[in-house]
Amino acid sequence: MLSKKIESLLNKQVELEASSSQYYLAMASWAQIKGYNGVSSFLYKHSDEERMHMLKLIDYINERGGHGLVPTLKAPPKEFKNVQHIFEQILTHEIAVSNEINKLVEQCLAGKDYTTHNFLQWYVSEQIEEESLARTLLDKLNLIGNDKGGMYLFDRDLGTLETEHDKKK
Ligand code: OFO
Predict the structure, then answer these.
(1) Per the structure, how many domains does the chain have?
(2) Which residue's alpha carbon is at the smallest distance from atom 1 of ligand 1?
(3) What is the CATH number of the domain that holds 163?
(4) Contact residues for 108 (Cβ-Cβ < 8 A; gap 6+)
(5) What are the per-10-residue average pLDDT scores of the chain (169 residues)?
(6) Is 50 in the pocket of ligand 1 (CB under 6 A)?
(7) What separation in Å is there between the alpha carbon of 17 and the centre of ligand 1?
């Protein structure tokens, strides 16, 4: 059985995963109308992954006798400066999410909730992967700079990049 405190912290994490999903969905839609089809397909998949992270938490909370709550979300931004800026925002966002996961892990240890601690290890490794992917893509974008040909290839490659989402299909 979950303690009320851990249940509420897990529900906060549900909200964070849901808002990550919305955030990436807004980026995907922006990229699509700007003609970046590869970037947009990558971001749509990324948004789906975040939704899956949210669902996994809701299911866990419910399985442990709590109540997974569906949050009200703030609308994400509509406009983005450029693709590079999007990936900078993704990296910053993922670092913030990792910090929240780490805090949650600490709280589980403090409350001796080893089951939730164990459950959260999946999120810990997922965050390492997400941060590292965002860093790699941002490094590539920094190399490309204002080179239009480079950007064309980046977009094309991203459209064919196999993500966690593809592997789980
Ligand atoms: Fe849920 O992994 Fe990103 O935020």
Answers:
(1) 1
(2) 50
(3) 1.20.1260.10
(4) 6, 114, 116, 117, 120
(5) 96 98 98 98 97 98 98 96 96 97 97 97 97 96 94 94 68
(6) yes
(7) 6
Cβ of 20 closer than 6 Å to ligand 1, yes or no, is yes
d(CA 36, CA 116): 40
- Calculate how far, in angstroms, residue 25's C-alpha sits from the geometric centre of ligand 1: 13
Task: Look up the domain containing 51 and give its range.
Answer: 4-167
CA-CA-CA-CA dihedral for 122, 125, 128, 134, to nearest 10: -50
Distance between CA 129 and CA 114 in Å, rounded? 23
Query: What confidence score (pLDDT) does residue 166 get?
Result: 72
Backbone phi, psi, residue 74, to 5°: -75, 145
- Tell me if residue 80 falls in helix, strand or coil: coil
From the alpha carbon of 127, which atom of ligand 1 is closest?
Answer: 2
The closest-lying atom of ligand 1 relative to the alpha carbon of residue 97 is 4
> Which residue, judged by its Cα, is nearest atom 3 of ligand 1?
94
Structure tokens at 97: 């999410």
